[in-house]
Amino acid sequence: MRITQKIEGRIGVSMTESTVAAGAPGKTPKTKMAIRNATKVYETRSGGVHALDNVSLDVREGEFLCILGPSGCGKTTLLWSMAGLHSLTSGDIRLGNEPIVKPHPEIAMIFQDANLLPWRNLAKNIELPFELKRKPPDRALIARLLDRVGLTGFENKMPRELSGGMQQRASIVRSLSVNPSVLLMDEPFGALDAFTRDEMNLLIQEIWMETRKTIAFVTHSIAEAIFLADRVAVMSARPGRIAEIYDIDIPRPRSIEIQTEPDFIKRVLEIKSRIQHGRGAGGPRVAIT
Length: 289
Ligand SMILES: Nc1ncnc2c1ncn2[C@@H]1O[C@H](COP(=O)(O)OP(=O)(O)OP(=O)(O)O)[C@@H](O)[C@H]1O
Ligand SMILES: [Mg+2]
Description:
CATH superfamily of the largest domain: P-loop containing nucleotide triphosphate hydrolases
Number of helices: 8
Shape: globular
Structural class: alpha/beta
CATH architecture of the largest domain: 3-Layer(aba) Sandwich
Strand order of the largest sheet: 1-11-10-4-9-8-7
Bound molecules: adenosine-5'-triphosphate, magnesium ion
Helix content: 25-40%
């Protein structure tokens, strides 16, 4: 059974006039992507691997949804299915009314690795999706996005000349340049050092506030999930199911410092205890960062 739990309370941080309340109280949220009974069994030489079991979840239009769960619980499997990169064993995933059975132009994916082609400079990497679709690149939008993420002037650099954070910023620009309405992110900042990760979390928060794209963001980090999300969906250990969904009502913009506030820590511990409680003995550990 899916439980929706509201964690009450505001974090005592000073907010500017542009503060945006998380969620939209009073309005019935519109579903952007509907996942229904998604089940995935990988057939392997040594037998079937039951990765997802009857996952049902609505991703709401314009929300920032974080998906959290222990290693191997099927987060990547779920995201790949949402991106149309592989098929489900049973169940279905829809964008509006459209079943997602192959990659869709409105859905972009960002991986843990920036996946830049080492022999192409930054500009040529960002233009790749346009080349693949034989469309002219939207250079005005790309220039705006590069400026937005602080990469103007780096267009001619090769990936090896860029830091990990810069490479991941470039991959964000590449994804946004095709103007998707849904952004799927699979532990995009997991390989970055703590400071760069904080910077990237602030950046993605700003980008989300400016664009209101629908974002589904997979992470191992409970703090990162609470910091970013409107809702946090917690998955149980494999076969992955949605164990619980938490509404995060912290107003935005959220500062990195809120993570040291007692109320924030309380939320982290609550989710951590839910994950540990739901985990079988000897199951995988969840890295708390
Ligand atoms: N192509 C595949 N073939 C066979 N089994 C697979 C395949 N991809 C994933 N699995 C298995 O499915 C389960 C779920 O894997 P998945 O990568 O979705 O988990 P995850 O939650 O993303 O883990 P992590 O947090 O470590 O990234 C795991 O047991 C994994 O070994
Ligand atoms: Mg994964």
